[in-house]
Amino acid sequence: MTEINAKTPMEDLTIGGDIYCAGNAREFKTGDWRSMKPIWLEEKCKQCGLCFPVCPDNAIPVGKDLKRKDYNYDYCKGCGVCAKVCPFKAIEMKEEGVE
Amino acid sequence: MAYDMKEIVANKPSRFTEGHRMCAGCGAPVVARMIMRALKPEDHAVVANATGCMEVSSFMYPYTAWTDSFIHTAFECAGATCAGAEAAYKSLKKQGKLPEDKTTKFIAFGGDGGTYDIGLQSLSGAMERGHDMVYVCYDNGAYMNTGIQRSSATPKFADTTTSPAGKVIPGKMQARKDLTEIMVGHHIPYVAQTLAYMNFKDLYEKAEKAIYTEGPAFLNVLAPCPRGWGYPTEDLMTINKLAVETCYWPLYEVVNGKYKITYKPVKKLPVEEFLRPQKRFKHMFKPGNEWMIDEFQKEVDSRWQELLNLEEITNK
Amino acid sequence: MSIRERLSGNEATAVAMKQINPDVVAAFPITPSTEIPQYFSTFVANGEVDTEFVAVESEHSAMSATIGAEAAGARAMTATSANGLSLMWEMIYIASSLRLPIVMALVNRAVSGPLNIHNDHSDAMGVRDAGWIMLFSENNQEAYDNMLMAHRIAENKDVLLPVMICQDGFITSHSIENIQLETDEEVRKFVGQYKPEHYLLNADEPIAVGPLDVQAYLFEHKAQQAEAMRNAKKVIKKVAEDFEKWTGRKYEFFEKYKLDDAEIAIICMNSTAGTTKAVVDQLRQKGVKAGLLKLRMFRPFPTEEISEALAHLKAVAVLDKADSLNAAGGALFEDVTSAMYVNGKHVPMVNYIYGIGGRDTTEKQIESVYSDLAEIAKNGKVENPYRYLGLRRREN
């Protein structure tokens, strides 16, 4: 955990702005940027893999079984690149907050 | 081992994490992530980043999206900064001050502003001196971080905030600089031009070669910017595809002076297919401006032909 | 055991660097510091050091590569002058903000333009607020000694700031003088090994260096730098004490030359102090109570100590070898006068801009400053505190 925030006194900030816990950006959630939400339609998905590498936000988890899982909405910014590359219409873009 | 994208994504960790603040649909993170995946999992990397979109969005204090060591100093010196770290590695390794069984690789990332323009000298110096490092230019064709100003990578006629398409001057009046060829002129062991296309095979394999070729290597990677280019965010891969299929962005590599075009479209598409979906070229499609598209096409054709010739000559 | 030698200032600096045996040196030629990388690359070519020498394509890259190397975990050094430092300027601030204990030799020369390759202090004054520790050297011996002390200061955990060792271009950099050198073994023992706590090449703890530091953090990070600069004072003192124990050569924040019983005094830095000492001696023989304060430690600036040392004087002249072009006075003058004011000491003070672009500073000129001071001491009045020394003007 990164215990540094806008209230941390100067004595407790790392010097030079160095960060010693590499990859801690995961603690910063970007899911609330989303206005459109991708919905994964598992039944239509053929696990072709085209959507795996195109997500700028690494929000499509891929298991050791080489199959994708449902979105990690903590990070998905709703760009829709995944939906566009899907040849099987297995990803639908819906307006965020509309069920 | 044959390239297996699913295997790579599933089993090689993402070394450029989620939680970064690049715009939705940005073309750069997918490129950075795949390049970093080309590292052997057991190897450590030092990444140097020029100031730009990628840097300010991936290391905003106190959060870093890089799981490897990372250094950002300034806009124009990713090449020299990376070279310094590499020199330190060489020195400390030689003196036995670092563990013998660990390997560190050196990768610099810069946008086209930080690479084609302000950082060209630093890049050229680092390549000429033969540091064992890869410099990756993620080329989005303008100074996107400061708000879409033209760079020397900006294509001809593009409408940017410092080459606006006005009543008298229709956008940028100069053709883009061919940085990949400039790097070939450095006679370094590996130079390639690529982008994220199809299943990312071209990008991954070139990254792997660049990282594991001893000595300096350079990758020029087209990384579309939905905001700067004016297309809907979801079209990233379509734009990439059109860039390749029109031969606007040829995929090729130069290994020890030998050219190899790694993808040749079966049927080369007219470049207007690439131009039309992008707002930055909108003025080119106004009646009376057909000459602009013609001229653009001629430029693309001549550069493609030049590349075909180079491939032929250097492989004789 | 010290070794008696005859070396130029540049050679003395290069020899100090050889004895320190840094991991990386990245440098670019510029007069009058060019000889430093020349000598040093010869040491590298002959296998006398373990250093990786990076012959960069510019000073901007020299400092960038030095930063990259130091952040990676290496002891990294460079050398430059004038426009070289100007080109580095952006990276100078970045080096200190990243808290990298880089050591650089600055062979002082006039910053263009017009182009002039000779000595003044305009290069150093251009980076006086950049967060570097700045030590000045009167002669070759001091340039060598300051260099030997630099890493112990820079790398101290309470400091972690870069250090710049200044000396006068040509005047000391190119003149051969007698010098006492220490042995390689003893130098390495004194300087010690560099063991950074966090560094890029530590694969077991990858780190990130050089963030975008937004409004919530930059202020605090800058204040940390300021704190480190305050801490540097006691470290510089301690290192000098250890150095004296080792070599017998004594260094303080500044040297007081016949100052304690003086009535009038000059403050200056680097080689001019040598000329001034000669004049002080002559004046003392004539019964004039003249003295000198030669400032060694310009950054951090020893405000209390300077005001204390000058408090008893009747008149003081501050000699600035760079003009601030601000219609108010030179940088050293500003620092000294504000030190006096803040510490509640009032002594009439006058500023002389001198030696610009390598203009010779003669004993006669220094003498004229003392006679001006005698006049000021007599009537307590300073008319026009912002003056020139050795400037050609129309007589009327």
Question: Can you walk me through this structure?
Answer:
The complex is a heterotrimer of chains A (99), B (316) and C (396). With 99 residues, chain A is low in regular secondary structure. Chain A has a single domain (30-99), classed as Alpha-Beta Plaits (2-Layer Sandwich). Chain A contains one helix and two strands, in the order E-H-E. Chain A is elongated and about 55 Å long. Chain A starts with 35 loop residues before the first strand and ends with a strand. Chain B has twelve helices and ten strands. Chain B has helices at 5-11, 28-37, 53-58, 78-94, 112-117, 120-128, 179-184, 201-212, 226-229, 236-245, 272-275, 290-314; strands at 44-49, 59-60, 63-64, 69-72, 104-111, 134-139, 190-195, 217-222, 252-255, 258-261. In chain B, strands 4-1-5-6-8-7-9-10 form an eight-stranded mixed sheet, sandwiched between helices. The longest helix of chain B is centred in the last third of the chain and has 25 residues, at 290-314. Chain C has 396 residues and is α/β, with parallel strands linked by helices. Chain C folds into two domains: 3-247, Thiamin diphosphate (ThDP)-binding fold, Pyr/PP domains (Rossmann fold, 3-Layer(aba) Sandwich), CATH 3.40.50; 254-389, Rossmann fold (3-Layer(aba) Sandwich). Chain C contains twelve helices and 16 strands. In chain C, the strands form three sheets. A seven-stranded mixed sheet of chain C has the order 3-2-4-5-7-6-13, with helices on both faces. Chains in contact: A-B, A-C, B-C. At the A-B interface, helix 1 of A face helix 1, helix 2, strand 3 and helix 10 of B. Strand 4 of chain B pairs parallel with strand 9 (208-209) of chain C.
Overall domain count of chain A: 1
Overall geometry of chain C: globular
Strand order of the largest sheet of chain C: 3-2-4-5-7-6-13
N-to-C span of chain C: 60 Å
Sequence of strands across the biggest β-sheet of chain A? 1-2
Into which percentage range does the β-strand content of chain C fall?
A: 15-25%
- Tell me which oligomeric state these chains represent: heterotrimer
CATH architecture of the largest domain in chain C: 3-Layer(aba) Sandwich
Biggest interface reads:
B-C, 49 and 44 residues
The secondary structure category of chain C is alpha/beta
How much helicity do the residues of chain C have? 40-55%
Sheet having the most strands of chain A = 2 strands, antiparallel
Shape of chain A: elongated
Q: If you average the pLDDT of chain C, what whole number results?
A: 98
CATH superfamily of the largest domain in chain C: Thiamin diphosphate (ThDP)-binding fold, Pyr/PP domains
